[in-house]
From TrEMBL:
Keyword Lipoprotein: yes
Keyword terms of this UniProt record: Aminopeptidase, Glycoprotein, GPI-anchor, Hydrolase, Lipoprotein, Membrane, Metal-binding, Metalloprotease, Protease, Signal, Zinc
GO cellular component: cytoplasm; extracellular space; plasma membrane; side of membrane
Domain ERAP1-like C-terminal intervals: 509-725
One GO biological process term: proteolysis
Start and end residues of each Peptidase M1 membrane alanine aminopeptidase domain: 259-491
Subcellular location field: Cell membrane
Residues bound to Zn(2+): H335, H339, E358
Top-level lineage group: Eukaryota
Name the record gives this protein: Aminopeptidase
Homology family: Belongs to the peptidase M1 family.
InterPro entries: Aminopeptidase_N-like_N (IPR045357), Aminopeptidase_N-like_N_sf (IPR042097), ERAP1-like_C_dom (IPR024571), M1_APN-typ (IPR034016), Peptidase_M1 (IPR001930), Peptidase_M1_aminopeptidases (IPR050344), Peptidase_M1_dom (IPR014782), Peptidase_M4/M1_CTD_sf (IPR027268)
Its EC number(s): 3.4.11.-
Amino acid sequence: MIWQTLLAVACITLQPVHSDTRYRLNTTIVPSAYALTITPYFDTNDDRAFSFDGEVSITFETTSNINKIKLHSQDLIYTSANISLKNGDNIIGLNESNPLEFEEDYSFAHINLASDIVVGSEYTLKIVYRGPIRTDLNGFYRNYYFQNGVKKWLGATQMEPTHARKVFPCFDEPELKAVFTMSIDRPAEYKPSLANTEIMSNSSLSNGYIREIFYPTPRMSTYLVAFLVSEFEAGSSNALGEKELGIYTRPDAKNQTEYAFDIAQRIVKALGDYFGIDYYSTNDKLRLDHVALTDFRAGAMENWGLIKYRESLLLYVPEESTPYFKYRVAQIVAHETTHMWFGNLVTCHWWSNTWLNEGFANYFQDYMTSLVEPDVAADDALVIGSVYSAYNADDNPDSPAITNNNVNSPSEISGHFGTITYQKAGSVIRMMHHLIGDDAFKYGLNSYLSTNQFQSGYPYLLYSALENGVRNFTSLSNYEGFQFTDIMSSWISQSGHPILYVNVDYENSSIELSQIVNDLFAFLFADEVKFELLHNLLHFLSNENEYAVWNAALKGLNKLRNYYIGSDTLDLIDEFALELMDGVIYRMGYDVKSTDDFKILRNRMQILEFACKIGHQGCIDKSLQWFKDLKDNNIWIQPSLRSVAYCTGLRYGNDEDYDFLWNRLVNTNVANEAWIIADVLGCSQREDKLKSYLVSMLLENSPIKTQDLTVPLASVLTNYSNVPLFESFLSSCKECSEDEVASAKSSLAKARAVTAWADNHRSDISSSLSNDAVTSSASIALLVVGALLVLY
């Protein structure tokens, strides 16, 4: 209950910075259909190796008479002799003196014509070309895995946001939707290829390949085109009525697909019910396959009917995976499946409004998971994972608005896929849902999706649809004079967020307490409160057991620690944190109990990982025993305790201990276990092993995949005292690729960013901790009132 009204509001806005609009097609051409044929060559030991032949036919009309066709094309090889243009049976000739030009800076191909193409006629442009099967995990790229010691190659795709042009010449902008009919030629020993839709027919070719032709897709954007050429098999598959849903992976991981299969079926049905549009009603030949790839740059990708994931985000083995990974599988499946409606059925007209796709996926990833799989605590995760992240990102004075009109180049587009577009937009959508109620929200979303299906979405169309829901259910009857569109658009179009100075009567729920802790740490780092205030508040943690509250506290304390690595202030922070943690460790215990629910398991994980790091002797002793039992006697460690056991074993271990875990990483068949080990290898205090870990990224057939380049970097820099070692590695790394250097510099920048703030606040923090006036008897409500009254 609010005790007092708003006292002050501060909202930061940014001056617009204009970008280069020449990256836009600005075309009068309206494509309606693509026919695409792809023939890949893998390790053929000739000049075709790791390339593909392609043929694309594009059917289109034009809204004005033109004599030039401008489309996207990047890294594809063809000449004017490979191009033909027809109007029915009539051939349209190319300009003889200058038939074809490439504008590489903007990824354009210009096809110059001998005569105009005119309004009201339908044309078909055909281009035969060759392209590389790439290594950068974009476009059509190659990847491998080992099966029984044999290296197996596969070809996968990642088109979003601007990579379809690397696979076929096209009009590669989201609002230029069309129907796609694909033909994929595959080696005979490979399994049937996968694409957006079901296979319509297949035939054997004279070169020993098998051609599979797929049913036409729904009308969709180029970035949603997807296919997979591999020996993958369905670990789990079933028909929903007459419609297929499958979980595909390398054969050795088929036994890890059961949970994904179960949750995927429940989520697609629940989303269809919620939005009022059954998934399969949009096209009767759509698939809904989920594929676990061994190397995939995006965490997951919502290709219509063929969703792709990293293995660790789709495969789950209860005996070998922490509870976190179960939650993540459910969450990411929900995120990507939400895109079948928000992003695929209705697509943002341009990347400036990517939030129309990603904001809804971000919100429903936890909201829908909380409805379908309540035991994984997704309702808490929605707040501590998205809302808090949004606030932290939005505190940056350079943060853009959710709608960012200065997005044109590929790098600007990729850069727009960040916390503001995902978490802040999702948090605003959550707020609007709470404001207008579930009935009005569902009514509005159904109206938006039904009215605009197979078309482009715009913010005003969404606002209008939700406004209809508000009127239909009189949702804002208690807010006379307020219009829903004005409320939501103000959050979407402005950067920053208000800071409200209020007194609040909290009910001591775990989420409310976690919000208090998160907010006060945010205010501390934004110089809005003194550390003394936060220090006094945190004493209540001595009697606190809840996961969400400790999650907020540990994130804040960990950030504070990183500011003072190597100083006396760090010792004071750790002493204070250890005092706070003794109680919860005693009450919770070290060992997993059969009665532990998901929140308790996750809370023990985060508590023990932090406690061991800051020197809690009981935690260290227990973790070292778990590690020794595993190493010496192969005694199984509970998945939720592995991270703390592995990290502590390395922190206090020797070279042999590091090698033991490295070998487990190399040999495990479970992606989640590999990720846990990769994440903790930086806990080692052995400088030569840390260097070895960084160098491992560069090795041929490295267990550190391209998708995971940031993992060893972040792992090593978890201890900020490793910054000099890290800088030395980066400066001497002649073999590092652009990706590796970019990832390293990003990680290093984050490590360096802490020093100025730390120097300015050292005295205040040291003084408060040295004069530790215990105020644990003070109520949370009184402390919060005090906190908010002293804000300046």
